[in-house]
Amino acid sequence: MKGTFLKDIMNLKGQMLYYAFVIVFFFAVGAITGNIYFYAGVSIFCGVVAPLSAIAYDEKDNWDKFALASGVSRKELAFSRYALGLSLFVPVWALSFVFFAIPSFRTAENLYTVLTFGGLGLAVMDAVLPLVFKLGVEKARTVYIVLVVAVMAFCVGAASLIGLAGGYVPLVACAAALAVGVIGLPVSAAVSLSVYKYKDF
Amino acid sequence: MNNISVRGMTKKFNDFTLGGVSFDVPAGSVVGFIGENGAGKSTTIKGILGLIAPNGGGAYVFGKPAASLSKEDKNRIGAVLGENCLPENLTLKEVSVVMKHIFTAWQDSAFFAFADRFALPRDKKIREFSRGMQQKAALAVALSHGAELLILDEPTSGLDPVARDEILDILYDFMQDERHSVLISSHIVSDLEKLCDYIVFIHGGKIVFAEEKDSLKEKYALFRGSAEELAALGRNAVAAYMRGDFGMSALVYRGEVPAGTPLERAGIEDIMLYYARGERV
């Protein structure tokens, strides 16, 4: 898996600068406006866009065929995409906690938001990767865009409702989002592996 | 001892069926896998490498079923799979770093020696290489991890004659070790005629023949004459025939033709052409 992961990092190094710019930009927007949602949304984007780009390159380069013929297992190929997604998503998401260094950000609502988006970021990755493996990048791209937009819309709506509900509801909602994202990860990986196992290259 | 044994491999697609393909690649030999585009060469090679799951039969590599080859087994195979399979955004230096983690016996020095021999720049991205350079880079990878078996799918396709000759030279060198063997597919038959010990011909998803190259030359010949002269040879003598503006031409079995009949030597390309396009008796 290390070889494939390294290859992905080298393949994407040109794009990393672009990702870094987007992350810094939205972090600054969040810090200036006092609205953490901008940056939290970017963390969801980051978790999926890197593996999606890596898979798009691999489809163009016929990498999977070469890797499988050279002794890389189907399991390693599938799991390396999750490793790539997590290696970008986790640090970007973790960076959200830097907001709490600013006193005005230290609210329960912001904490719930960051935790909820952590769970949702994982959940989007859990949903998108098996689809990409099954359908290919081009067909799955539309699903991915629709899913991210739907999640963002859902978040805005849910945040308003949860805010109105008050009490323990925000805490339960963020725990539920985290649980879905974390528990969904092994389930998603198992589905991806099963797709890869029977795929012809 | 066979490095590859394909036994009754069948794979069904919507518009094509690979039907019961069987042949061997003995250790120490070069086997040319010929057939027109779409005949089933790449599908068979994918089956051998475990890239597709056959519907029936299968392939054995180093005596093991293709689907159960370990990483170590696959590391003993060097594969070049037609179109470029190396990451195009990477330079050769970066490719070497990646391959070090793919192949347990990866040899940096061998890889860069091949790169120098092929005049491939180390710091240029692969996407900036010409098609010939990309094929050479893929071959350099295949030859730099101690492979005993090369499986090459159309490695010379799209290359100019000089580049093709260079690749054939490398394969000659590789075959100096008698444990090594090569399965090479191509529709450029002249390349294979120089290199191969055995020829496997596939047409329409089925194997037409799998024989020693030299025995093919002894077995087949070309006959040219009128329809009456061709008919006089007898049905058993004619493998396939074609009608031309000036009479008939046929691929015939030397052993079945009456003594004294004027015949021409049949090259492998002729044999392939008659089986693919000729009419059967």
What's the topology here?
The complex is a heterodimer of chains A (201) and B (281).
Chain A: H1 2-33, H2 37-61, H3 63-69, H4 74-94, H5 108-135, H6 137-165, H7 169-197
Helix pairs in contact in A: 1-2, 1-4, 2-4, 2-5, 2-6, 4-5, 4-7, 5-6, 5-7
Chain B: E1 2-12, E2 17-26, E3 30-34, H1 41-48, E4 56-61, E5 64-65, H2 71-75, E6 77-81, H3 92-100, H4 108-117, H5 131-142, E7 149-153, H6 161-174, E8 181-186, H7 189-195, E9 198-203, E10 206-212, H8 213-219, E11 220-225, H9 227-233, E12 238-244, E13 247-253, E14 264-265, H10 268-277
Parallel strand pairs in B: 3-8, 3-9, 6-7, 7-8
Antiparallel strand pairs in B: 1-2, 1-4, 4-5, 9-10, 11-13, 11-14, 12-13
Helix pairs in contact in B: 4-5
Terminal CA distance of chain A: 19 Å
Largest interface: A-B, 26 and 33 residues
CATH second-level architecture of the largest domain in chain B: 3-Layer(aba) Sandwich
Helix-strand topology string of chain B: EEEHEEHEHHHEHEHEEHEHEEEH
**Largest sheet of chain B at a glance?**
6 strands, mixed
Instruction: List low-confidence stretches of chain B.
Output: none
As for the CATH topology of the largest domain in chain B, it is Rossmann fold
Beta-strand content bin of chain A = under 5%
Helix content of chain B: 25-40%
- The SS-based structural class of chain B is alpha/beta
Q: Note the main sheet of chain A.
A: none
Brief description of this entry?
The complex is a heterodimer of chains A (201) and B (281). Chain A has 201 residues and is mainly alpha-helical.
Describe this structure in words.
- The complex is a heterodimer of chains A (201) and B (281).
- By secondary structure, chain A is mostly helical.
- Chain A has one domain.
- Chain A is 85% helix and 0% strand.
- Chain A has helices spanning 2-33, 37-61, 63-69, 74-94, 108-135, 137-165, 169-197.
- The longest helix of chain A is centred in the first third of the chain and has 32 residues, at 2-33.
- The radius of gyration of chain A is 18 Å and the shape is globular.
- The mean pLDDT of chain A is 87.
- With 281 residues, chain B is an alpha/beta fold.
- Chain B folds into two domains: 2-204, P-loop containing nucleotide triphosphate hydrolases (Rossmann fold), CATH 3.40.50.300; 217-277.
- Chain B is built from ten helices and 14 strands.
- Chain B has helices spanning 41-48, 71-75, 92-100, 108-117, 131-142, 161-174, 189-195, 213-219, 227-233, 268-277; strands at 2-12, 17-26, 30-34, 56-61, 64-65, 77-81, 149-153, 181-186, 198-203, 206-212, 220-225, 238-244, 247-253, 264-265.
- In chain B, strand 1 (2-12) and strand 2 (17-26) form a beta hairpin.
- Chain B is elongated.
- The two termini of chain B are 37 Å apart.
- The chains are: A mainly alpha (201), B alpha/beta (281).
